[in-house]
Design goal:
Elements: H1 15-25, H2 35-47, H3 49-58, H4 69-83, H5 90-99, H6 108-116, H7 125-153, H8 159-175, H9 185-201, H10 214-220, E1 228-233, H11 239-253, E2 258-262, H12 267-278, H13 294-308, E3 312-315, H14 322-336, E4 340-344, H15 360-378, E5 382-387, H16 413-417, E6 420-425, H17 434-440, E7 443-451, E8 457-464, E9 469-472, H18 476-479
Parallel strand pairs: 1-5, 1-6, 2-3, 2-4, 4-5
Antiparallel strand pairs: 6-7, 7-8, 8-9
Helix pairs in contact: 2-3, 2-4, 2-7, 7-8, 8-14, 11-12, 14-15
């Protein structure tokens, strides 16, 4: 690769940089706007409120979309009257605005009359609405770009955080959902009642995403949008296997696009586990001289095709930073509409912030808060694995190996941020004698130690070691007793 050894051009030699600087400094330049289409929208709404205010609400038009403050004020008042069931006609509208002290803010009676008589063609309403939205997007880009330029000139120490923030704001503009938008209490109540009715009717969609483990679904109501589910355990308990079981059910059985971030295992290893666990073929048999029969090969081939056709995305970047993970997740949400994320595991991630440099506890807290924030931002559930400290090994008697919430390593912030915390435990791992190991073989528990919106308790599971797979309920031998 050739290297250019010439002296870099100075600022004065770079016209593009000069033009950019001039554009930024030109504060007198008007922001993009479309006053004609704004007047057209308001005129249509004044003349036929039932038809056109309803369309504006469906199209998620807000006061922020209007460039003129007087237009924004009038639109907000029209929405208020419409939602209150009040009739909208010019004479009573003038009086209502006067009573509320808003008449001067919308330009007075003359401005209202001018809007009313603007008389646009009704067939152009949606076309003009799109014009207004487009100008709002352009203004938003300029505003966010100016903020980013100002922050960049201030020479922030945390460049990665600034880049993450700029990307988030730009994506919010693209998706038409600014992060600081508010939801009315009326809408929230309607959403709650709608879910309540769905629950009464027994509709599956009223629950969160099913995990494939019946007792866990019963206690949690499924994995809900915006929730962070922490699965924590000591090493060798099977955290990754349980996570991939969830991924398998959600992505393969339910058909929901999913993404896995693996800081520990490669994509090859994860897919190998997923393939043979789903095909119910113990790959360890090959080392013992077993030759797959025709049925085994057909089952493996069929499963491989099924996995290959699924919308499962795996990122195996080692030591990925929280900022990088959020950027990749946002892009996959935008491009593939992923509905679920799984992360393996929290303590292998990194935060590049200045505050986290000298404090591991602070770093873990920032990562935990970042994951919870991402779940809310993308409105999808996120499962993240975490390590426990050595507390379980220090317990004696029947409590030997039994995990507790206080065993979460390095930060209480994980417990605080999580909506659900499941502590995975296999008594066989702690058994001393061969007889005890045989007696405990296959037994496992997921201790739901925290459930923000439901009960806690012990969920019995069966661990099939040859397949690296968990199944719901206790082992068959124990269940038959």
């Amino acid at each position: 690769m050739a290297v250019d050894t010439k002296t870099p051009p100075s600022f004065s030699q770079s016209p593009s940089l000069q033009q950019a600087a001039t554009a930024v400094d030109d504060v007198t330049r008007a922001l993009p706007h479309a006053l004609g289409p704004e007047k057209s929208l308001l005129s249509s709404m004044l003349q036929d409120s039932q038809e056109y205010i309803g369309v504006a609400i469906e199209e998620k038009l807000t006061t922020g979309h209007f460039y003129l403050p007087s237009h924004a004020t009038l639109f907000g008042f029209l929405i208020e009257l419409f939602e209150g069931g009040h009739e909208i006609e010019l004479v009573s509208l003038v009086q209502r605005l006067l009573d509320r002290g808003l008449l001067d803010r919308v330009g007075g009676p003359a401005a209202l009359t001018d809007l009313y008589t603007y008389a646009p063609s009704p067939g152009h309403f949606r076309h003009h609405l799109q014009h207004v939205k487009d100008k709002f997007v352009l203004r938003s880009i300029i505003q966010n770009s100016n903020e980013a330029i100002a922050q960049a000139y201030d020479a922030p120490d945390e460049v990665a955080s600034l880049l993450d923030s700029v990307e988030a704001r730009m994506l919010a503009i693209r998706e038409g959902s600014e992060s600081n938008k508010t939801i009315t209490i009326k809408q929230s109540v309607a959403d709650v009642l709608e879910q309540f009715q769905a629950l009464i009717a027994g509709e599956q969609g009223s629950q969160g995403i099913a995990t494939g483990f019946e007792e866990l679904d019963r206690m949690s109501g499924g994995l809900k949008p915006g929730e962070m589910f922490v699965i924590a355990a000591r090493p060798s308990m099977g955290k990754t296997s349980l996570m991939m079981n969830l991924v398998e059910h959600i992505c393969m059985d339910l058909g929901k696009a999913s993404m896995v971030f693996s800081c520990e295992m490669s994509a090859f290893q994860l897919v190998q586990r997923l393939l043979f666990a789903r095909a119910k073929f113990a790959i360890s048999q090959l080392t013992r001289g077993y030759t797959p029969n025709k049925g085994d090969l057909q089952r493996i081939q069929r499963t491989a095709m099924e996995i290959g056709a699924s919308k499962l995305f795996i990122d195996d970047t080692a030591g990925i930073s929280i900022n990088e993970l959020r950027a990749k997740a946002r892009r996959k949400k935008r491009d593939e509409n992923i509905q679920f994320i799984a992360i393996d595991y929290l303590q292998l991630m990194r935060s590049r912030s200045k505050q986290a440099e000298n404090s591991r506890e602070r770093e873990i807290a920032e990562i935990s808060a970042g994951i919870k924030g991402l779940a809310k931002e993308l409105n999808i559930p996120i499962v993240i694995l975490a390590q426990l400290n050595r507390g379980p090994e220090g317990r004696t008697g029947k409590s030997l190996g039994m995990p507790r919430l206080s065993d979460l390593r390095e930060s209480g912030a994980i417990e605080q941020d999580a909506d659900l915390v499941g502590l995975l435990y296999r008594p066989e791992y702690y058994a001393d004698s061969t007889e005890d190991k045989e007696a405990e073989a296959g037994k496992a528990e997921l201790v739901l130690a925290k459930n923000r919106n439901g009960p806690t308790g012990h969920i019995p599971l069966t661990f099939i070691a040859d397949l690296m797979r968990f199944e719901t309920g206790p082992p068959a031998s124990e269940a038959e007793r």
